[in-house]
Design brief:
There is one protein chain. By secondary structure, the chain is mainly alpha-helical. Helices cover 17% and strands 0% of the residues. It has one helix and no strands.
Length: 76
Amino acid sequence: MTEPKVVHNHHVKFGDDVKPDEDEKEEHSRPPSPAPDPSEVTAPPPAIPCAIKDEVELLRAGLRNKHGDHVKQHHK
């Protein structure tokens, strides 16, 4: 890590007489919302393994390419 209070070559330093524009200041009209309770947070539903298996089977059969586009007609 760098040492504290080290001025780098590409660091821009403004004089004391330079003040930021009013429109550049970030003012929040309201405070940030609080975090939800841990009991209210739920995990996403588990993925369906058979859907992944179907995609893999289609790739292996040559019916789809790696982008998911159909390349051959599917005949049963």
